[in-house]
Amino acid sequence: MGKRETGILLRTLRQSAGLSQEYVSGKLGVSRTTYTAFEAGRSEIGLTAIQNLADLYEVSPGEIIDGKLASSSEFEAASIAALPEPLEPEIAPREVNPKLNIKKLQNVLLYIIGNVGARPNVGETVLYKLLYFIDFDYYEKNGRSITGLSYTKNHYGPTPVHEFSHITQSMVNAGELEIIETPHFVHTQKKYLPIKQADLSVLSADEIKHIDAELERLANKSAAMLSELSHKDMPWIASKSGKRIDYQLAMYRTSGTSVRNHEDDL
């Protein structure tokens, strides 16, 4: 294995541990610039740094050198060796852990369902995927989420964390939206319908433009189609079932879901 494989493994280990580059470089006693070169596969790593990295992540020095864990692990599901180089990883600072902005989430939700919520295909599953792609696509392009909502990996794709249901219930109680169940083919579909209009003053013009583009691109797809699309997305692939999906994994997307250079592919 070469420097590139070692760099990919270092990025994956660091992100899985929820650590920043500043933290790891500090533990190694090197500058962030030097450490960034390690992850980018542009620089050889000294033996002392290799040992310190092995101690930090509780792996062997040989695994760091090889760029591959010796035993099966959560990282195999992410197909580490196949991960592309991150797109422009150091051009602008990114939010490492986006924070939930409840007011933005409420108004993004009202805006989405105000525009497409009445469509027959837009039930809860489609709504979840629209929110996910809106947030993760914006993060890939701009280094931050619009709503800061967290998502977990489940069998049918990304799902908002439990806090989402508490927020929507508070909106129901406040008379801002209603949640109804209607027959949909052989199933019961849960739909979110707005009672009040979204307050667009809490969103930037660029954020609104992004949401509009995402709705145009995705809102006509069925729940099955959006679930299938999410299963091709590196953030979902590289996450453990039932665990939160790391926003930073959006920087390792392949052409199948990347929106930086492939917005017309989907």
Please tell me the overall pLDDT. Answer: 85
| Radius of gyration from CA coordinates | 20 Å
First and last CA, distance: 34 Å
Structural class: mainly alpha
Number of helices: 11
Question: Explain this structure to me?
Answer:
The chain is mainly α and 266 residues long. It folds into 2 domains: 3-82, lambda repressor-like DNA-binding domains (434 Repressor (Amino-terminal Domain)), CATH 1.10.260; 102-252, no CATH class. 45% of the residues lie in helices and 9% in strands. The chain has helices at 3-17, 21-28, 32-39, 47-57, 61-66, 102-116, 124-142, 163-173, 205-218, 223-230, 234-237, and strands at 151-154, 157-160, 177-184, 187-194. The strands form 2 sheets. It has a two-stranded antiparallel sheet. The longest helix is centred in the middle third of the chain and has 19 residues, at 124-142. It is elongated and about 60 Å long. The two termini are 34 Å apart.
